[in-house]
Design a protein that fits this description.
The protein is mainly alpha-helical and about 140 residues long. It contains six helices and three strands. α5 packs antiparallel against α6. The protein is elongated. The termini are far apart.
């Protein structure tokens, strides 16, 4: 099996070499050998980096992601936390959809003042309800 040089992993994954070294320090990835001073990785590192990126996008810390990868091949999946975060993402998606609808209407509203538009007022009420159901408070 041909190993991937750190530069090739960086190029394919879009992750800087300094971040790859940091991820290795955190236990997220592991180099298999070195060619001179350059780290060498197996092809599975690209999938691991994709999972790290998704975890970060989901709001997990690197330590939480490392724990989910597990040590010794036994992942520690916080299933309740994953469910709660997925639910929060769905609520946020509904809120963002309501906001997007409102913004599109404002951009296309034929009324001289969108604040006087019945459709805009209806969309505003929907957006406020979505925000209230999501438990978000204006800070």
């Amino acid at each position: 099996m041909k190993l991937l040089d750190i530069g090739e992993v960086s190029e394919r994954s879009g992750v800087k070499p300094s971040a790859l070294r940091y991820y290795e320090e955190k236990g997220l990835i592991q180099s298999l050998s070195r060619h001179g001073l350059r780290r060498q990785y197996g092809h599975e590192v690209l999938q691991q980096l994709s999972l790290v990126a998704l975890g970060k996008q989901g709001g997990f810390t690197l330590d939480e992601i490392a724990a989910m990868f597990g040590s010794g091949g036994k992942p520690d999946l916080p299933r309740d936390d994953l469910q709660a975060r997925a639910d929060a993402m769905r609520r946020q998606a509904r809120q963002m959809e309501a906001l997007a609808q409102m913004m599109l209407h404002v951009a296309e509203c034929p009324a001289p003042n969108h604040l006087d538009c019945d459709r805009f007022q209806q969309l505003l009420r929907v957006a406020v309800r979505a925000q209230q159901r999501g438990g978000s408070k204006h800070r």
